[in-house]
Q: What sequence folds into this?
């Protein structure tokens, strides 16, 4: 916190008469409903029209002379792992260059790699009894990594699917999805965060659980009951085992849940709640002056599960503990603590010093700082009210959504309505809240383009938070890029936060929809560059290669080695159920082969030493060229086999 003793930079802070000051705090509360539509139509209104026109010049001025460009042949300092919204995938960018390094299909299907086409990927995504995919859509919002000793261990990434309430795990050695779990009795699985150490066993100082919020309350179970009575509907906080990916337990709450954060001591998880009202209509969801951030005492919940003090819902076997207020009258035994925060908050983020959770206000122009030691005190029966755990509530600007940190005591909050990032100092905010009238926590406000949602900093969700870069994921990009039709590229804006002032250093395009991500130091990530053939139990080797027929089931075991498939001709009969398994015997790094079968809708790749299989019905007679889709060799075009289907 020492650096903030220097003179606070306020040049960019809002001045009187500024458009951003026009809607004051009280005006905003009254306009809360209008606020959202005001923001969404902001590009049309006069003031932001002016801003857009002025933006290119302002941005050009803001671009620093350098340090962030990555010359050809040079490597980035950081990886950014980002969600992709309703694209359903996960993305890997290099930072600061903004280069797209990989797109990882997760809840979507992808014919480049064959995700959703191969038997192996279908088994991970989940199939219906007829073998077709259960879901082909996804909506990823939040990506977080697994932890050890308070920082990333490079083992796993987790990402949520809001539509179908699924949690996916990505292996960081291959950067591929290896497990997907659906949460029972949850709709709108939004926030998600891994724990950072075990809440009970001190020796376990790494991620063992992943916590999941539940945004849309539903009948429990959702089997046709209570359709007309939303007051009976509910939301469940879920705990998923990080290793097995099974749901360990759920906890029913009052109100809904949005985002999730976990404490560095492993004992607390929390979720911000914008619908404590349990409202079904917008007006109802905004009727309370304050909403809440609900804290979960993980050890107490797990003790209740152990003691058999739980119920189950519908056909789900997952133990459900009651975390509603009525069931938890005494703080000393309560599993939940509902801390009142600003109206309809969005986002809850843990400060890297382990002391605070910050809820961003959304409809309140404030951030609420909650002291975790006071939450513990409340659970011990030593705090009068839940609200007493709040130690600061600075006014940061209009539409605060998410907050990140620099490891030097400063917080950065995205302002959706103001299209800005506010840099503010946490200890100064606490001093101001205590009554110090000279304390001004606001350090700087910087325009971003436009209407930012998530904001995240380099290593910012770890104890190794290094305060170098910050990314602002913006929902609108009008005028920032060449036009490409009605659907715009959105922007990820990279900001240098290493100095006293934030500096915008790059605009990167984002294909809809930019949400949350993490920025990870490159030395954390250790990938394997080729697979191990023995990891695939169905690998095809010279001794089992060939065609095997059992009735009308035909197993084609094929190998690839540039520029050949092991069989020039594959003959089957019309009506056969064909399983084609392909193992890539090339050992050269980056030597990937493809396998496409025209009209049969088959297209997938096998990386070096990797095996994949597909199963399909040979229902059309004729000759079909199986060909390699992935450029592998000078004779790549010649890499073909004849697939003959006899009548
Ligand atoms: Cu703010 Cu789904 Cu994290 Cu997006 S949520 S912005
Ligand atoms: Cu094998 Cu292209
Ligand atoms: Ca509310």
A:
């Amino acid at each position: 916190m020492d650096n903030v003793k220097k003179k606070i930079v306020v040049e960019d802070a809002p001045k009187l008469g500024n458009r951003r000051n026009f809607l004051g705090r009280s005006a905003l509360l009254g306009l809360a409903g209008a606020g959202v539509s005001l923001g969404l139509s902001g590009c049309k209104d006069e003031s932001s029209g002016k801003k857009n026109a002025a933006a290119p010049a302002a941005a050009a001025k803001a671009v620093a002379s350098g340090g962030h460009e990555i010359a050809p042949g040079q490597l980035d300092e950081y990886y950014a792992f980002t969600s992709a919204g309703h694209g359903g995938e996960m993305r890997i960018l290099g930072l600061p260059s903004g280069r797209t390094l990989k797109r990882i299909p997760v809840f979507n299907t992808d014919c480049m790699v064959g995700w959703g086409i191969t038997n192996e990927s279908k088994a991970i995504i989940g199939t219906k009894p007829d073998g077709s995919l259960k879901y082909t859509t996804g909506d990823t919002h939040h990506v977080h990594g697994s932890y050890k000793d308070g920082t990333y261990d490079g083992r796993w990434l987790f990402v949520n699917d809001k539509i179908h309430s699924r949690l996916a795990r990505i292996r960081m050695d291959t950067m591929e999805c290896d497990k997907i779990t659906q949460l029972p009795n949850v709709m709108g699985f939004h926030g998600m965060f891994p724990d950072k150490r075990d809440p009970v066993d001190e020796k376990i100082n790494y991620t063992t659980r992943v916590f999941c919020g539940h945004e849309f309350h539903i009948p429990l179970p959702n089997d046709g009951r209570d359709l007309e009575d939303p007051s009976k509907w509910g939301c469940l906080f879920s705990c998923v085992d990080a290793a097995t990916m099974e749901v360990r337990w759920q906890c029913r709450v009052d109100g809904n849940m949005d985002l999730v954060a976990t404490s560095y001591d492993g004992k607390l998880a929390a979720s911000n709640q914008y619908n404590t009202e349990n409202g079904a209509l917008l007006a109802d969801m905004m009727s309370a002056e304050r909403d809440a951030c609900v804290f979960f005492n993980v050890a107490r919940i797990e003790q209740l599960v152990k003691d058999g003090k739980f119920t189950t819902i519908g056909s789900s076997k997952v133990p459900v503990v009651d975390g509603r207020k009525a069931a938890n009258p005494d703080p000393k035994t309560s599993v939940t603590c509902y801390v009142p925060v600003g109206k309809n908050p969005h986002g809850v983020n843990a400060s890297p010093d382990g002391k605070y959770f910050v809820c961003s206000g959304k409809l309140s122009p404030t951030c609420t700082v909650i002291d975790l030691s006071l939450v513990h005190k409340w659970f011990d029966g030593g705090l009068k009210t839940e609200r007493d755990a709040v130690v600061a509530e600075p006014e940061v600007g209009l539409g605060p959504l998410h907050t990140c940190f620099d490891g030097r005591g400063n917080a950065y909050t995205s302002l959706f309505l103001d299209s800005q990032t506010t840099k503010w100092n946490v200890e100064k905010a606490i001093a101001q809240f205590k009554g110090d009238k000279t304390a001004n926590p606001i350090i700087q406000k910087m325009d971003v383009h436009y209407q930012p949602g998530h904001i995240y900093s380099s290593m910012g969700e770890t104890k190794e938070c290094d305060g170098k870069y910050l990314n602002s994921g913006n929902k609108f990009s009008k005028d920032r890029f060449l036009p490409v039709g009605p659907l715009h590229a959105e922007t990820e804006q990279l900001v240098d936060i290493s100095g006293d002032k934030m500096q915008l250093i790059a605009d990167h395009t984002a294909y809809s929809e930019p949400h949350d991500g993490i920025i990870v130091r490159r030395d954390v990530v250790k990938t394997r560059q080729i697979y191990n053939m023995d990891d695939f139990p169905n690998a095809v080797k010279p001794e089992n290669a060939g065609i095997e027929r059992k009735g009308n089931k035909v197993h084609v075991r094929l190998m690839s080695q540039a520029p050949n498939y092991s069989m020039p001709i594959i003959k089957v009969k019309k009506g056969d159920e064909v399983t084609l398994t392909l193992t890539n015997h090339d050992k050269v790094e980056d030597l990937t082969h493809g396998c496409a079968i025209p009209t049969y809708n088959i297209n997938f790749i096998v990386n070096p030493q990797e095996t994949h299989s597909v199963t399909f019905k040979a229902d059309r007679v004729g000759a079909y060229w199986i060909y390699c889709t992935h450029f592998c060799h000078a004779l790549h075009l010649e890499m073909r086999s004849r697939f003959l289907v006899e009548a």
Summary: The pocket of calcium ion (ligand 3) is lined by residues 274-277, 285-286, 288, 291, 343-344 (CB under 6 Å). The chain is about 10% helix and 35% strand.
